[in-house]
Write a structure and sequence with these properties.
With 254 residues, the chain is mainly α. It contains ten helices and no strands.
Amino acid sequence: MRSVLWFLAPFAALLALWAAVVAATGVPMRIFPQVTDVAWALADMTASGELVTHLAASLRRVLIGAALAVVTALPFGVALGASPRLSAFFAPLLRFSVALAGIAWIPIATLWLGYGDGAVIFIVWNAMFFALAYNTVLGVRRIPIPLLRAARSMGTGRVRMFWEVLLPGALPSVVTGLRVGLGYGWRGLVAAEIIATSAGLGYALFLAQKTFSTDVIIASMVIIGVLWLAMDRLLLAPLERRTVQRWGMTAAPS
């Protein structure tokens, strides 16, 4: 309970500061809403069913995009990490693509896939793929050479080498890459939904901006932040701590 309260303390301080500044300055709601205005907007979105619709659309897209990123990035990263020739060949392209991953691909994604789920899922996959692949390469390279030589000397085939040596050995870095990549994917999702869809949390932001509903804009931002924080703290951070501690590292990012 103490750690939970300590974790929530900065958010409580931010809310108190927010309420005090808006009340003291008398800024109109069209410029920036009061805390209570945002609370009422959240209540209205929940009562109308709008919140459930946008949440379901965003979560579906981010889960599909994340699954595709894991399925494609892990084999690619392991192959690069295990082969110096492949790594040397693809490393410049990988570094080049990291800077362009995610949001920069939205215009061409809509040209290729049209406006809808396909373009948004592609952006999530694209934003996650390079971060996850890069961390997987680093994880494979950190596996001790004597361990790899011992596995080869025992006649370990490529399939068993992948599942029983390379992937487990790289898992701490893979989980870190998943955590970082999912953050990139979430931001790409919101940006793509603003442009390419008619449902989702990003679209809710865009629609509220057109009607000057700043209370709904801030409410949508709060939902996005809380949802990502819940995914990070309840799923990704515990998974990262368990793998880092299990594989012999002394600390993991919180």
